[in-house]
Amino acid sequence: MSTYxxxxxxxxxxxxxxxxxxxxxxxAPTAVPVAGGTDLMAAVNSGLLRPAGLVGLGRISEIRGWQxxxxxxxxxxxxxxxxxxxxxxAALIPALxxxxxxxxxxxxxxxGTLGGNIAGAAPTGDSLPVLAALExxxxxxxxxxxxxxxxxxLLTGMxxxxxxxxxxxxxxxxxxxxxxxxxATGRTGPGRAIASVAVVLDPARRGVRCAVGxxxxxxxxxxxxERWVAGLIDWDGERTLAPEALTAFGEYxxxxxxxxxxxxxxxxMGGTPPAVPELxxxxxxxxxxxxxxARRALGRALA
Length: 303
Description:
Shape: globular
Strand content: 15-25%
Largest sheet: 5 strands, antiparallel
Number of helices: 13
Helix content: 25-40%
Structural class: alpha+beta
């Protein structure tokens, strides 16, 4: 055993409640919370991270299930992808269940957690575009009490976790409406997303929510495309769209998330106008992928 491994073994706390976890983090501000450890331990093994201590969250039973509160589902941050992929959860939040089932091979889904996916904030996190489309929020426990903030604020760094805080729950509004999640990978079977798209219908507000993952550091919401396509849907009728409208929506989403490069500034010398730059081939292919995912996701939601 290495010197680091012996030292790390002596600095592991295993709380059995959120209060104990907050106390452990307050006592060791440089310690890192860990649940499934699928991302954290990969960073440790590759030498990218050397935490001074660990606070294991696996024994905190209160964050490993879910409950209902004011028209929303309060999901424990310790929920594993495998648990979220089961039929009872899929009946509750179908898009999040689909993302959980696509999160990777069984060993990853059995260990990886919802809270870890959010706290790790990897661009390829499968749950992140779904949470963005659902406009979910997180409940954080800390030494100064509990607070709630939008998932988007946490992912963008607008309001990061503070010292001693631990992500406890995720509040997801229950829309009881069609929702889908699709992703493209570089190989057959489970793998990291090249692009992913979540589409959620909100009939009560006559709206469509869409979020695109993996193409930027954080999920992107093409708000103008959402408003445009929502205006085409007959919310009191069959809620169907012509294939041409679905295709246009996909292209609208893709262009919003992977925009054309800006033209070079004019040098003011009155010479030949600068050439309009083109997207590199890889970006063109990625735009096509996003367009296809968005078109299919909306089509399945409307069906």
